[in-house]
Structure formats: C-alpha cells, structure tokens
Amino acid sequence: MGENTVTHSAAFVRTETLPQLEPPATQRGIVKWMHENLFSTIPNGILTLLAIWVIYMVLSAALPWILGGVWTTSSLAECREVLDGATGACFSVLTERWNQLMFGFVYPADQYWRPTLAFVLLFVAAAPVMFFDLPRKLLIFTALYPFVAFYLIWGGTIFVPILALVGVVGGIMVYRKLVQGSFAMGFFGGLVAAVLIWAIGGMLIPEGASENAALQAVPSRDLGGFMLNMMLGVVCVSLSIPLGIALALGRQSSMPLIKWICVIFIEFIRGVPLITLLFVASVMLAYLFPPGTTTDLFLRVVIMITMFSAAYIAEVIRGGLAALPKGQYEAADSLGLDYAQAMRLIILPQALKISIPGIVNIAVGLFKDTTLVSVISMFDVVGMIRGPLSAATEWNGIYWELYGFAALLFFVVCYGISQYSQWLERRLATDHR
Amino acid sequence: MKKTVFFGALAVAGLSAAAAAAGTLDDVKARGTLNCGVTTGLVGFAAPDANGVWEGFDVGVCRAVAAAVLGDATAVEFIPTTGKTRFTALASGEIDMLARNTTWTFSRDVDLKFEFVGINYYDGQGFLAPKALGVTSAKDLDGATVCVQTGTTTELNLADFFRSNNISYEPVPIETNAEGQQQYLAGACDTYTTDASGLAATRATFENPGDHVLLPEIISKEPLGPLVRHGDNDWGDVVRWTLNALITAEELGVTSANIEELAAAPTNNPEINRLLGTAGELGGMLGLEPNWAMMAIKAGGNYGELFEKNIGENTPIGLARGLNAMWTEGGLIYSPPFR
Fold first, then answer.
1. What backbone phi and psi angles, to 5 degrees, belong to A16?
2. A218 vs B17, which has greater pLDDT?
C-alpha cells in the first residue's frame, strides 16, 4: 500500500500542503499599503492626489532652485551672470559671508578658533548633564566650563575667570560650613563670601592687565552672528532653570514675604513682552547709569532674557508640583525628611520629570527669541541678515537664501533639543504603561 | 593738616567737576576714538564690507570728523543704531555724533534737543515705474495703483500730491521696503513710492534695472544730515565745519588726489590756503590742528568724491547728483565761506 492507493480511494484528500501562494495583488505589498493608507476611500484618494500635486509643485520649484544654486561668485550681479536666466539660488552670499553669519562682523578673524573651541567643548561639558550614564567625574569639567568658555570667548586677562572661579569655590565652602546651622545662613554666608572674594580680588588685578594678555580681549559689542544666539540661548537656559525652580518653590512657600515676592516677580515678568524688557535693557538703563559706567549690554540682555524665561519655567514647574498627589508630600513628611531633603529626594525628581515637555518647550522658544536682540542693534544671525548683509552693495536684494539659511540653523538646533527631550522622557519613564 | 585735606578734597572735587563738564571734543581727544552712530545697514550710506570695515556715504562723514579731530580716519568706533535706538544713543552720550540718514525736522531739532549741523544729502519722495508703463511724469499716473508703506509720512505726502494735482490713485499698502520690492516686481502695483535714494537702491537690486525708471517728480523734502546733542556748541562747530570743509573742497577743486600738492605750500587761492591751514589759523579757533581740514578731506575725498564713490552714477546704486550738486552747478550743496 503506497500513498497512491490513498490518493485513489479519496480523491480530494491531500496529504501534503500546497506551496503557499502569494496573497492576491490587492492584498500585499505596495498596493495594499497604498490602498490602506492613501486610497481607502474616495475622499481620501482625492486628498492624496491633491497632496501629491502640492508636493510636486513645491519640489519642482524648489529643487531646481536649490540644486542649480551658485556657490562661488562674489556678488549678486555675478550670480545672475553665471545663472544667465536659468533658475538657481545665489548661495554665494553664504560662502562669502559665512564668517560674518557665524561670528558677526567685528570679531577678530584670526581669533575665530576661540568661539569654535568653546562650542566644541560645550558638548563635552553638556554630555554628563544630559546623559547621566556617563561617568560622574566628567561633571568636574562641566563645572569648570563656564569659566573656560568665558576666557575663550572674551579673552583678556586670565585673572578674571580665575577670580570668578575662586569666588564661587569660596562661596560654596562657606555654604557647606554654615548650612548645618540653617539653609538661609549657609546661603547668605556663601553669597557674602563670594562677593567679598570678588571685591578684594578685583582690586588686586593690575590695571591694564587685559592689554597684553595671551588671548586678545574682545569686548561684548564685537560678538555677533549665530555665536551670539548660541551664547544667549545656552547661558539663559542654564541660568533660568535653577532660577525657575527656586521661583516655583518660592511661590508655594508658606512664608508670605517669599511667596509674595515670587508671585509679583512671576506675574510682572509674564505680563510684559520680552521686546519691552529688551528695550529697557538697551535704552532705558543707559539713562539710569552715569555715562561710562554702564554694565555690559550682553550682560543686561542675559539678565532680561533669563528673568523672562525663568518666570515661565517657574509656572511650568508649578504645574508639575501641582500634579503630584498629596500623598507624596505626606510620605516625605512621614519619613522625617526636612523641607530640603523632601524636595531634593522626593518631590522635585517627580515634578521635574512631569515638567520636561513644558521646560523644553520654553527652552526652544527662548532660543528662537534670542533673535529679538536684532531690534536693539545687536548683530545676531538675523541682525546680520537684516542689517549689514541686506545693505551690502554686492548682496542687496537677496532674501530667500539668507532667511532660509537662518531657518535651517534654528531648525537643526531646536529639532535636536526636541529629540533629546523625547529620549529623556523615555529614559525616565518608570511607570508601566 | 586738616586744612590741607580739606583743600585737597576741594581741589579733587573741582577737577572732577571740570572733567565732567568738559566738552565732547575733549572727551573724544582723551578717548582717542570717535563714537559715531550709523545705521545697522543701508545700501550705499553705511554697511560693513566682507572684512567688517564700515563703508558708505554717512560713514565718510564720521571718518572725516575723526580725521579732523584725531588725525586718523580709522579712529572711529561705529555704533550701529536702529531707527528706534538712534536718538537715545545720542542723548545718553553713548555716541558723540549721529550720521544716520536722519531727516532734519522741527521737532527733532527743537523738542528732542538735538542740533543738526548741516545737510549732507537732500532726499525726497519719488516714484519708480516700469518703462513698459510708458509714463514720463508722476502727473501721468492718473488711476494708477501705488505701493506705499503704511503709517509713514510717505503715505500722507502721496495723498497730498495726488489731491493737489487733481488725479486719482489706488493705494496698495505694504509694510516694509523688502515687501514693497516684491510686490512691485510681482506687478501688484503700477508704481512704487518711497525716498528717492531708497528707490534707486531698490532698482539697483533688480535683475534688469534698465526696465524701470525713476520719475522726475520729487514730492517731499527729506533733508538728511549729521546731528549732535544740544548745548555743546564747540563740538557742534567741529562737526559742522568738517562737513563744510568737504563741501568747500569740492567747490574749490581740492580732491584727495591733489591735496598733498595744494597743502605743501600756500597757493594763489587764499580760501584754499585758509582751508588747508597754510594761511590763517582757522583750525586753532576750533581747537584743532592747523591741518584739520586737510586730514578730513584726505580721509575719503571731498563731498563730490564721497558721493561718486558710494552712491554716485558709477556705483550699482547710481544716484544722479540732482539737488545734491554744488550750488554752482544748480544744486543745493552750499557751504558758508572759510574766512
């Protein structure tokens, strides 16, 4: 008896499975995908065709313009000569004025390596803060970075950043000594110590020390370009987060004085447009100081932007604090933790985690707001485009290339920040959803 | 002992008071640089080049003043100002003078407490139209659509002009000059109106500038000039007469090419001699070196040379002298005599 017999007696029984057939053409591959995603119903189909048409229109206009771009001429007129009527962008303005777009037009050309180095080191310094799996020892460099970056960008005598560093270290040491007594005593003691060290040290720095310094001194007025946006963005974000946390906690404080100071500060700053604050910084303060003793314009702008974003961040964090169940506060109390410990160990880690999207939102907005300084005649990248570049005889009449470039720069940075925050949220996700 | 300390303190107080009251001229000399307010960028009038060196017609005035006072045309700290920050920068003492295509008006001179020391460019509102439109005069623009910036005196001047000529027009409101260029090129309006120098600069950026014409009518007065603070007349005199020296130099034919030769020894023309300091002591009266005017003229050339180099007919901006020709050639540029 072989298989054949069985086959004969029961003609419709198969003993072996048929080889698998492909699914029907409409149920597989690209056709299925298109059917499901693009043409599932007639209105969807129409919308798809419409979208394809729009994309085609945009790309057919933009791609020849971008790909046919001219990169090496020295003026708009030459660009037009080279193009000779063909469609094409004049990207030469970017290559010819690259350094001005990056560093402003007054930063000494032979010193461009300094801000570039500071920019590279920024990633080294930011890494251990942003990716906490890295060795903790790297934080030492992060702590030193502000002083290194200051020295690199502004130059001048090396005593200034060293003195600043000594002051901070002295302040922290005094704080550590006194904080056992009470937090307030430690805080103010540290502050007084730091200010004392700066005041005394300031007198010791010889007059004119900056003139023959190893790194040529560059006044703030000479900073510009995208470097200025990066500096304002990084400095103001990193200052406004701690300030914002302090304000948010202060607003919840049970001590009326602190509470009301914080409330008034937040509500006032949030109620005033940033551009008004910038005008105050650039114009009004010049009247208030006696001539010749004005604080640095860069510093004034940093203070204003920091205050502005700190007020917003404070409100975001307050939202995070409010979202925590009351049980968390009570749990902290029941463990016998004092206020600082409860905040540091239980409340803030959870509240900050909730607040991450909001804080990132504000950081991105703040970074883009740094372009507002162009209205108070500081030459950030937009200021460079609006002023010197569009007024240059050889480049007057170019808009798309320059503003497109600025948009691209900001997009790259802001998209990076947003991707990082999404990674951070996933990394910190401890709940099981 | 106590008395000495007292007198010492008094002397110090007196000295510092004197220092505080010292004029801008002394401040500039002590500082070694001139703080000159300019625009953040206007084609032909002030803009930094690829190396960051400021160039332009207004910049030339700053450099001439620096050369006259300090003997060095490069001893200028250019402070870029916007339309909003320019007057506070001058009033607060952040800048010593402002050379920023600023129109001399009554209220700026009187109410804002500034002093316009002269006029270095007579501007006025004009019209730009495509050649294809076939108009040769703004009075032919009956029924035309006109691109005009809203909320400016330009808009009011336009309305006045059309009403007084009894012709009609249709305004197309725009916000900025860049938008105006785009709208005009896109054919949204028959003609575009703003300051004539701006129109010329705008036309220079077109792909085919020859297809567009500036109509001959100028319908408003926009005298632009450098200004200083009220109340410091010595400094005002320095800036005023530096500008006048540039103008007089053109009138007398003193150029950056022949100035060395003319200044080497007294010439037959006594006014040239007084101007260049080979005779008389006009420089001393201003508190400057005898060769102050020579330095100022050498810095960038006389008025005509500055004009030709930065905004004249051989530049992409291509402005004709027009009202800004010498008075001897039918223009308005005129300097009081150096005597």
1. -110, 150
2. A218
Residue B148, helix vs strand vs coil: strand
What is the separation of C-alpha A85 from the centre of its chain, rounded to a whole number of angstroms?
A: 41
> H helices of A84-112, where?
92-96, 98-103
Residue pair B46/B76 in contact by the 8 Å Cβ criterion: no
Long-range contacts of B283-292 (CB under 8 A, 24+ apart): B286/B234, B286/B237, B286/B238, B286/B241, B287/B25, B287/B234, B287/B238, B288/B68, B288/B69, B288/B238, B289/B71, B291/B263, B292/B68, B292/B69, B292/B242, B292/B245
Q: How many CB atoms lie within 10 A of CB A82?
A: 14
Contact B61, B224 (CB under 8 A): no
Backbone φ and ψ of B224, nearest 5°? -105, 140
Q: Do B44 and A279 touch (CB under 8 A)?
A: no
- Domains in chain B (CATH in brackets) are 22-122+224-329 (3.40.190.10), 125-220 (3.40.190.10)
CA A380 to CA A102: how far, in whole Å?
A: 9
Mutating which of A223, A280, A377, A380 best tests the B interface, going by the most B Cβ atoms within 10 A?
A: A377
At residue B75, the 3 state secondary structure works out as coil
Burial of B47 (0-12, 13-18, 19+ CB in 10 A): buried
pLDDT in tens, A156-169: 888 888 999 999 99
pTM: 0.81
Distance (Å) of CA A220 to CA A155, A280, A379, B47: 11, 18, 11, 20
Q: Write the DSSP assignment of A387-417 as a string of letters.
A: IIIHHSTTTTT--HHHHHHHHHHHHHHHHHH
pLDDT digits (tens, 9 = 90+) for A233-269: 999 999 999 999 999 999 998 899 999 999 999 999 9
Mean pLDDT for chain B? Answer: 87
Shortest Cα–Cα distance, B278 to chain A (Å): 38
Contact A395, A73 (CB under 8 A): no
- Which of A96, A286, A377 has the CB atom closest to B80's CB atom? A377
Task: Tell me the average pLDDT of chain A.
Answer: 88
Contact between B282 and B274 under an 8 Å Cβ cutoff? The reply is yes
**A291 close to B21: Cβ distance less than 8 angstroms:** no
**Residue A2 pLDDT exceeds 50:** no
**In this complex, how many residue pairs, one in chain A and one in chain B, have their CB atoms less than 8 Å apart?**
87
| B207 touches A at CB < 8 Å | yes
Q: Residue type for B235, please?
A: W
Q: What are phi and psi of A264, to 5 degrees?
A: -65, -45
- CB contact (8 A) between residue B178 and residue A390: yes
Tell which wins on pLDDT, B151 or A334: A334
Beta bridge partners of B171: B146
Q: Identify all chain A residues contacting B201, using CB atoms and an 8 Å cutoff.
A: 396
The distance from CA B27 to its chain's CA centroid, rounded to whole angstroms, is 23
- CA count, 13 A, side-chain hemisphere, B336: 8
Buried b (16+ CB within 10 A) or exposed e, A102-135: bbbbbbeeebeebbeebbebeeebeebeeeeeee
CB neighbour class for B120 (10 Å; exposed up to 12, middle 13-18, buried from 19): buried
Residues of B in contact with A80 (CB under 8 A): 207
Query: How far is A341 from A337, CA to CA, in rounded Å?
Result: 6
DSSP A348-378: HHHHHHHHHHHHHHHHHHHHHHGGGGGGGT-
Helix (H) or strand (E) holding A319: helix A297-323
Distance CA B5, CA A95 (A): 65
Write out pLDDT tens, residues A327-348. Answer: 999 999 999 998 888 998 999 9
Model confidence at A295: pLDDT above 90 = no
Three-class SS of A199-250: HHHHHHCCCCCCCCCCECCCCHHHCCHHHHHHHHHHHHHHHHHHHHHHHHHH
* Interatomic CA distance for residues B85 and A373, integer angstroms: 12
